[in-house]
Design a protein that fits this description.
It is a single chain. The protein contains 17 helices and ten strands. An eight-stranded parallel β-sheet has the order 3-2-9-8-7-6-5-4. α8 links the parallel β5 and β6. α6 crosses α16, α7 runs parallel beside α8 and α9 runs parallel beside α11. By secondary structure, the chain is an alpha/beta fold.
């Protein structure tokens, strides 16, 4: 792929690479939330020292947070004694944590007029194929949080697209999750646009925030053992660049100009799942390659800390909106990989994976009962 150097003075700089990305115009969000991150001041330190300006969560993250910590045990046991269902307990715990995080990011949200400083909470993944229930859950969770800088995550599935439109029309900020391809991104963008256009036609404010989360690492995980060595770890970057180009062509188009004129905002592109799964590759491979202004990179703690140890960005395939993404994609197609079918498969697998984590999360909460309650 053609790579272009950023115009930042990175060589010899003593700034964290996290700061360099921030100066480039890319937002760094943490893909993690735990009560320990909040209680121990770690999240606050990431904000002040590593230029972290937002945060995302998902069922897998909360499953690990609750399973691997005792920080939630007392609250869970008290709620179980009150005979609250596991799902209700989870959302009470998640909202408590994310409200605290949202308040930490609120100064950034205010300073950027709502462009940055967001946190995200996902509706139950069991609702991924139920449009009406997803809309109802999105409205309920956003109202309960009572914070303007909370995104509700809705998957960009076939049933999720009309839910995204309805949530946006209702004024609920949406993080569209589980997108894997240009086509899925464009479908999500159109759902967002329809929701905003309906608000304009109804005389409502057009400035409802939204981001479109394109998942990264699962592409290479799916194909690295099937493709030629020269294409290893390249499909994900090609697919990302293809989506980035589509974004650059879409947002300046006339339908979007109309909503900007009415006070609406562009749909920001977010790179999700940017932790590298290939242990032979640099842990910041995707992060550096995907550096681009007016995008977001949400990364796990390990990736964030690895990036903080670096003082250079080097080259980015996104910097000049160039590169040979179609040539790379064609190379994979020649190897017998159906890109469109794989994108659909990855979205379906992602939906099922989150549902599995959700069920495990419910079991983890139930298992936190007092020992005597278990014996009874």
């Amino acid at each position: 792929m053609t790579k272009t150097k950023t115009d930042l003075p990175t060589r010899g700089s003593k700034l964290h690479a996290t700061t360099l990305l921030h100066k480039l115009g890319q937002s760094l969000w943490l893909d993690n939330i735990t009560r320990d991150l909040l209680d121990q001041g770690t999240l606050k330190r990431y904000i002040h020292e590593l230029s972290v300006t937002g945060l995302t969560s998902n069922p897998t993250i909360f499953e690990q947070a609750i399973k691997n910590s005792t920080a939630y045990d007392m609250d869970i046991r008290g709620k179980l004694k009150e005979r609250k269902p596991e799902e209700q307990i989870f959302f009470e715990l998640a909202l408590a944590d994310l409200i605290r995080a949202a308040d930490l990011f609120r100064p950034i949200y205010d300073q950027t007029n709502g462009i940055d400083g967001w946190v995200s909470l996902e509706v139950s993944p069991l609702l991924a194929h139920d449009t009406a229930a997803t809309v109802a859950a999105a409205k309920d969770l956003f109202a309960r949080a009572n914070r303007p800088n909370l995104f509700i995550k809705i998957p960009g599935t076939k049933e999720g697209l009309p839910a995204i439109e309805e949530a946006i029309f209702a004024g609920v900020p949406v993080n569209v999750t589980l997108l894997f391809s240009r086509e899925q991104y464009l479908a999500a963008a159109q759902a967002f646009l329809r929701g905003i256009e309906r608000r304009i036609d109804a005389g409502l404010k057009a400035n409802v925030g939204s981001v479109a989360s394109v998942f990264i690492s699962r592409w290479d995980t799916a194909v690295n053992d099937k493709a030629p060595a020269k294409l290893r770890n390249k499909l994900v970057l090609a697919m990302a660049l293809r989506t980035y180009k589509a974004k650059c062509e879409l947002l300046p188009s006339p339908p979007w100009h109309r909503i900007y004129s009415a006070g609406g905002r562009p749909l920001r592109l977010l790179w999700a799942s940017t932790g590298v799964k290939d242990l032979s590759a640099s842990p910041v491979l995707y992060v550096k390659a995907l550096a681009a202004p007016f995008t977001i990179d949400t990364m796990p703690e390990g990736t964030l800390n690895a990036l903080a140890e670096d003082t250079e960005l080097g080259c980015s395939i996104m910097a000049a909106n160039g590169g040979d993404c179609e040539e790379v994609i064609t190379g994979f197609a020649a190897s017998g990989i159906d890109i469109d079918a794989l994108a659909e498969r990855l979205q379906d697998e992602g939906t099922k994976s989150f549902a599995k984590s959700w069920n495990s999360l419910m079991a983890v909460i139930a298992a936190k009962r007092e020992p005597e309650a278990k014996a009874a």
